[in-house]
Amino acid sequence: MVIKTEPFVVNIGPAHPSTHGVFRMKATLDGEVIVDMEPVFGYLHRGIEKLAEERTYTGVIPLTDRLDYLASMSNNLAYCLAVEKLGGIPVPERAEYLRVIMAELQRIASHLIAVGAFLNDCGAFMTPILYMLREREKILDLFEMASGQRLTYNYMRVGGVSQDVPEEFVPALGKFVKVMPRWIDEYDQLLKENEILLARAKGVGILPKELAINISASGPVLRASGVKWDIRKADPYSVYERFEFDIPTGSVGDCYDRYRVRIEEMRQSVCILKQALEQLPQGEVRSDVPHLIRPPVGEAYGHIEAPRGELGFYLVSDNSIAPYRFHVRAPSLINLTALREMMVGWKVADAIIIFGSIDINMAEVDR
Amino acid sequence: MATPVLPPDWPGGFWAHWAVFVVIIFVFLMAMVVGFIWFERRAMAIMQARLGPNRTGPFGLLQPVADALKVLLKEDIIPAKGDKLVHWLAPVVAFIPLLMLFAVVPFQGGAILADLNIGILYIVAVSSVTTVGIFMAGWASNNKYSLLGAMRQVASVVSYEIPVVLSIIGVVLLTGSLSMQQIVMAQDIPFILLQPLGFLLFFIGALAEINRAPFDLMEADSEIVAGFHTEYSGMKFALFYLVEYGEALAISAIVTTLFLGGWRGPVLPPWLWFLVKVVIVFFVIVWVRTTVPRVRIDQLMALAWKFLFPLALLNLLITAVEILVWPTVSLWLLVLVNIAIMVILVLLWSRLFKLGWGRVEV
Amino acid sequence: MTAALSGNEIATRLQKQFPGSIVESGPNSLLVKSESLLEIATFLKTTPGLDFDYLAAITAVDYYDYFEVIYQLTSLQHNHSLVVKTRCYERENPSLPSVVTLWRGADFQEREIYDLMGISFDGHPNLKRIVLWEGFEGHPLRKDYLRW
Predict the structure, then answer these.
(1) Structural domain boundaries enclosing C77
(2) CA torsion, points B8, B12, B17, B20, in degrees to nearest 10?
């Protein structure tokens, strides 16, 4: 007697403890194996691109904070770079170094949450993420010293940063940089060679190299698939040419590689912070830019290496106080393109892990 | 291997003995489960660099009481399209066997509700009925996620029964009797030293049977919301919660009896030794939960059938050969030989063994 | 540094291959006719020396007379970039050929442009609304959407 089975459609999400926001996956399951998957999103669409056309160039900066709220400093930086490219506005030295310091601290904070959430999805029941949140609190204290905020900083301005850091910032940052490598080693030690983690994450959700380039993946997802492409080295912005750091790459492109790449990137960020702290000059932190900036007519595309990938802003100006067109190239949206290929053939438990390892932020996907 | 010594008989006749012990078991179960909930939350919190409950009562000791009160006052929601009778019956079917398990656990020399001479067989049989209750819960909720959870549960319990039972047989061979009281009496050296491989297999298998980490995919928070008890609230949810901790308590008690020497110990009164050992075993269970990630369902199956089952068979073979060939040799020599064999076998097997399938072609 | 290729040099090469397809070329970008977009894109991707295998972004802008769609292309091997633009002059049902067959990264971005601007892409396998819900009327990012 042949047993007849029938695939059934299950909705994973939108309200689900581990879909990192409101994201819905329409999965067709055959037993526990996923045979087809369709992503549905747009639940968090706020129309930021349209809203930006009604605000001044400086007034758009708080909107950019809320795009990828786990990496606000990077969003601010990318936008200010785009406006400065558009208007040809110079930035003082001290401001450039402060921007790099904030961006790298933000990268560490964002990767801590990404790795912690990934391990939480693997089932390590909150222990790794709680350890990582403990370090993130120290970074958030530093950010609070500088900007007064813990999540959406609104710190960078066109032509520099909004205010100088207080005196206790530099010693606190020095202490953090000295202590952090030991904490990264602590997280690594328990989990790097853990049998169960290797069994769950190695070989799961492979994104081959050609497919990664074809879907315009960027950030740790692209680097874990074996492509050594980091905008900080390929198209350096701000003062990144003055620092020495490596770009960690993976070889296979599975979930384990993406996890390793993020851990190594945290180590490299600490290295950059050390060098930036040594080279930090004195000076003013904002060039003389009018409050209502009117860049000349033209367009510019400014992109940076945000923690989740290549974050780009495309701005068109018509010499008025508001941008004519404001477009965000969101890394999370584009990294999601191959989700179906990565998930088909694996089981429901793996689907959650694969989705967590790409590390997306729904606010960026939906804008 | 040792000659069994029978404990004294309790006064009052059969029914008085039964009534006293029913009360003792019930109080023990409730008090210990409440204590375990508190203990787990504090221990896990401290291992995760945070504090845990410390407001309600001194050291947060009244926290489980607060939880119980909260849960009792909640509305009892029944899914409209679910099977109502099965939905109501499932927590009951899951909880009753748990109480029945403690009938043969010796708290002290002679302090046992029923000294069945098939004690350990009774435990194995009764503990499987809980699974039926869990499957009923998954089915009656009319929810695809719950059904997935229930299916996983049935598959895993059936698979892990076999290594567990085989490792118990190793202990029974050394004792010469199935009675729990005799097993404790026979442990001049605790069986964890004489049967290290058996202890390891039993512990891992038992963790899988009671759905604790790293095998808690039945109620994996991040995958299928809450598995089979997604649709439960109020007193029924409290019963499932009780079942989870009660099973952990039962496993700790059984491990203590089978492998750690039960209530035997030098200075303290025997029932205190029993409690201390049970708490230590539970602490190890909580420790494992906090540290290790979760396995996937096919990896769980592979672990049972390809790793634990052959090792359990080998353990049984080696124990039987030792008893036949060396009936009068010193026990400490056996300890050394067994530990060496365990180390070699575990290392060898983990090299040869692949955990789970990979990707399935669709 | 990523060398931003000048539109003029690429224009002279393309004029030889596809005569009449270049509308305008400036130092920063290249404007092509919408009919020849797909062949020019294929040429840019497959020619050794150009090798634009990475599509960084697609954007659409509404200049009241026409829609302009901008493609930011990058080559990972040679580390140079190019900006290619094209225009559609209709307001009611503008359409362009889709580049999904060349660069799959265009998948979600073209769906978003269809959703918010109303430009449909021929050849796209799954052209439906992505950030707004099915059944939404209108295309919000257009300049004349609900303007008071």
Answers:
(1) 3-122
(2) -120
Helix B63-72 and helix B235-259, axial crossing angle in degrees, nearest 10: 140
pLDDT per position as a tens digit, C44-59: 888 888 888 888 889 9
Which chain B residues touch A203 with a CB distance below 8 Å?
A: 358-359
**pLDDT (tens digit per residue) in C9-67:** 777 777 887 777 777 777 778 888 888 888 888 888 888 888 888 888 899 998 888 88
Residue C127 lies in a domain: no
Q: What ipTM, to 2 d.p.?
A: 0.88
Q: Is the preceding peptide bond at A166 cis, omega within 30 degrees of 0? A: no
The answer to whether the Cβ–Cβ distance between C57 and A41 falls below 8 Å is no
**B360 domain-assigned:** no
User: CB-based contacts of A59: which residues, under 8 Å, 6+ apart?
Assistant: none
- B11 occurs within a structural domain: no
Residue B355 has a pLDDT of: 64
How far off is chain B from A344, nearest CA to CA, in Å? 8
Digit-coded pLDDT (tens) for A248-265: 988 888 888 898 999 999
Q: pLDDT at position A270, please?
A: 92
CA distance A17 to A3: 34
The CATH number assigned to the domain holding A259 equals 1.10.645.10
Number of domains in chain A: 1
Contact call for A33 and B362, based on CB within 8 A: yes
What's the pTM value of the predicted model, to 2 decimals?
A: 0.85
Whether C39 maps to a domain, the answer reads: yes
- Summarised one tens digit per residue, pLDDT across range B166-217 is 988 888 888 888 888 888 888 878 888 888 888 889 998 888 888 776 777 6
Whether A267 maps to a domain, the answer reads yes
At B5, is the pLDDT very low, low, confident or very high (cuts 50, 70, 90)?
very low
What tokens were used for B132? 């039926």
Average confidence (pLDDT) over A158-163: 88
Residue B16 counted as domain residue: no
C57 interfaces chain A, CB cutoff of 8 Å: yes
Domain that holds residue A80: 57-327
**C105-144 residues touching A, CB cutoff 8 A:** 105-109, 112, 116, 129-133, 140-141
A32 interaction partners in chain B (CB closer than 8 Å): 148, 297-298
Chains C and B touch (3+ CB pairs under 8 A): no
Number of domains in chain C: 1
Å from C32 to nearest chain A CA? 18
Range of the domain at B191: 76-352
In a domain, C136, yes or no: no
CB contact (8 A) between residue C132 and residue A45: yes
CATH code at position C71: 3.30.460.80
Indicate if the pLDDT at residue B3 is higher than 60.
Answer: no
Q: Residue B266: which residues within 8 A CB-CB, separation 6 or more?
A: none
Q: Assess A127–B contact: CB distance below 8 Å, yes or no.
A: yes
What gap in Å lies between CA C127 and CA C115, rounded to an integer? 9
What number of other Cβ atoms are within 10 A of residue B84's Cβ? 12
B71: closest CA of chain A, how far (Å)? 21
Is residue C146 in some structural domain?
A: no
Cα–Cα distance, B112 to B253 (Å, whole number): 13
